[in-house]
């Protein structure tokens, strides 16, 4: 059964096989964790994103694509696009859960043994943090028995608020 870890850190420092980027549908970078990953990882990541754009256009909300990780300590960056919070009646919950499932499925295809997630959609996209954390942990928990390669799943909280929320919710997921 994969090990689940909650840490407070900058995801660009995490040496997991794959780190997940909270990207936007253009795949051309942005602020927040997207900005940090492109800044630290270097132009190779953007070049690969542009090749993906040429092949399939951008990336739809809830979907995920993978690139190399350039100068980052990870091997891959899995770019997924979270939903923008619009009040909760536009399938935001379903789309956010799909980000975690799509990223895990892609990491499995890439034979990753470890994957690190940021708190997708809880920054610029304004998803309420507590709801987002519950969705993230529930979506990942449901996937655990499907995983054959992944042994470690790390939730990387950048701010203390998210870190405390995840820690608190994890106490209810005693079987994680
Ligand atoms: N490491 C880990 N987490 C980070 C980092 C980092 N270096 N920088 C920011 N975060 C956290 C934020 O604190 C937030 O909790 O990532 C979470 C997601 O916030 P955003 O990066 O703003 O992502 P999101 O809310 O999904 O919005 C995506 O923002 O940057 C643009 O191009 C991106 O348009 C897209 C949108």
TrEMBL record:
Chain segments annotated as transmembrane? none
Q: Which parts of the sequence belong to the Macro domain? A: 1-174
CDD domains for this protein: Macro_OAADPr_deacetylase
Q: Which Gene3D superfamilies match?
A: Leucine Aminopeptidase, subunit E, domain 1
Query: InterPro entries of this UniProt entry?
Result: Macro_dom (IPR002589), Macro_dom-like (IPR043472)
Superkingdom classification of source = Bacteria
Q: Which PANTHER family match?
A: GANGLIOSIDE INDUCED DIFFERENTIATION ASSOCIATED PROTEIN 2-RELATED (PTHR11106), MACRO DOMAIN-CONTAINING PROTEIN (PTHR11106:SF27)
Designated name of the protein:
O-acetyl-ADP-ribose deacetylase
